[in-house]
Write a structure and sequence with these properties.
- The chain is α+β, with helices and mostly antiparallel strands.
- The protein has 5 helices and 6 strands, in the order αααβαββαβββ.
- A hairpin with a 2-residue loop joins strand 4 and strand 5.
């Protein structure tokens, strides 16, 4: 029986879509005139509070991810940022493998508790970055 292989390379198509993205000029104009900086200053004036559930999610994931990177000899960095009003957990390993029920359940917990999860290559390691809101505005 013959192997089945599905392979595509969308790099060039993606690059062209990014270059020709509608609204790009508008976003550049907003950046140039300082809109985003002013927006950030105004948002920073609004009082913030810690969201208990997201704090608990952060603490839980930090502990679980710490155990994971310790098992494989990696690095971890968790930050609760009181200037950007967010929290992140970054794991650095040569590779990530989720191959048994325990590690797959960690991956599932990350997906359930995080706002955003990113994998990228950084400083000769693979970085798994987990973003959790942690804070909310008080109105």
């Amino acid at each position: 029986m013959k192997n089945e292989v599905f392979e595509r390379d969308y790099a060039e198509e993606f690059r062209q879509r990014q270059e020709n993205r509608p609204g790009r000029d508008f976003l550049d104009a907003l950046q140039t005139c300082g809109f985003f900086e002013q927006y950030k200053r105004e948002m920073d004036k609004i009082p913030k509070r810690i969201v208990p559930k997201q704090k608990a999610d952060y603490e839980y994931l930090l502990g679980e991810c710490d155990a994971y990177v310790r098992q494989f000899g990696g690095k971890i960095r968790g930050v609760v940022d009181y200037q950007k009003w967010q929290s992140t957990i970054d794991l650095y390993l040569p590779h990530f493998e989720f191959c048994d029920r325990e590690s797959l359940s960690l991956l599932e917990e990350i997906a359930k508790r995080a706002e955003n999860v990113t994998f990228c290559i950084q400083e000769r390691a693979l970085r798994l970055s987990i973003f959790i809101s942690y804070f909310d505005e008080i109105y």
